[in-house]
Structures are given as structure tokens and as C-alpha cells.
Specification:
By secondary structure, this protein is an alpha+beta fold. It has helices at about 5-15, 30, 50-65, 130-135, and strands at about 35-40, 70-75, 80-90, 105-120, 120-130. It is built from 4 helices and 5 strands.
């Protein structure tokens, strides 16, 4: 049986945590993320835990200083929360993991996220992003049209 109250509480925790990736609101990091947080999309050997959250947030804000996420759907069932997002921003810094210098171009990229919340804190994260569309918007890959 789905615990509706827990599901809604966990959804609010995840939506609150989204603010960490769009500004300097890191003082709530320990409150929102488990110390042993796992980013399942991180490359092998990458830092995990709260340090990973900070590293990603800092890099994303360097790359897209005007970053904003539009939540298109948020669905929660017990400890799992799923988000469908549209990420918007202007590419003004090197692209994480790719070394692509700033292009000054605006992007709008679809994301899907699955987040696990345990004992009121985010413990696990999985994501799928439409990087192909982003590369086309940045002019790195030609649009087939």
C-alpha cells in the first residue's frame, strides 16, 4: 500500500533540493542529502556523498549561470520520486566532462530523474538527459534537418 503522506513529503524534499542546483543555497545540503548519497550517473571513481552534490552544483552553475529547471511533472510513490524537467540556460562556461568551451548559446534540454529518499534525505539519484539535442543546440552536432 502506497503511503500518500510519505510520498508527498518526499516529493517536497526533492523539489526543495532542486534549488541547490540553481544558486548558492548550499547551507541546507546536510539536511536534504544523506552523507552517503550516491549519484548513479557519476563516472567510475567519482566522488560521492555531499561532496558530489556540491561539485555538480558548482560546475553546472559555471556552465549555465542563468540555469533554471521547469518541473513538468513530479510523481512520488513511497521512497521514490520521479521528475520530468526542462532545463534552460545559456552556455557560458566549459561543459562538464566534455571540455567544450562556452558558446553563448541558449539550450532547452529535457531530463528525467529518479530519486530515492530515505529517512527524509535524498540517498540515490539516477538521470537521463537529452544530451544529443543539447549538442545540436550548441552547434557541436549538426541538426539532420
Amino acid at each position: 500500500m502506497v503511503d500518500v503522506a510519505l510520498s508527498e513529503k518526499n516529493k517536497q524534499i526533492v523539489l526543495t533540493a532542486m534549488t541547490l542546483l540553481t544558486g548558492d543555497n548550499t547551507e541546507r545540503l546536510d539536511e536534504l542529502f544523506h552523507a552517503d548519497y550516491r549519484d548513479h550517473n557519476a563516472p567510475a571513481g567519482a566522488t560521492q556523498g555531499n561532496k558530489r552534490v556540491l561539485e555538480v552544483a558548482e560546475q553546472v552553475m559555471k556552465t549555465f549561470p542563468d540555469l533554471r529547471y521547469e518541473v513538468e511533472a513530479a510523481i512520488a510513490e513511497d521512497e521514490l520520486v520521479s521528475l520530468r524537467l526542462l532545463m534552460r540556460g545559456t552556455h557560458k562556461g566549459p561543459l562538464m566532462g566534455m571540455g567544450l568551451p562556452a558558446t553563448g548559446k541558449e539550450v532547452a534540454v529535457k531530463h528525467l530523474h529518479m530519486i530515492r529518499v530515505v529517512d527524509g534525505k535524498i540517498s540515490d539519484h539516477w538521470a537521463v538527459r537529452d544530451d544529443l539535442t543539447m549538442m545540436r543546440q550548441l552547434g557541436v552536432i549538426p541538426d539532420p534537418a
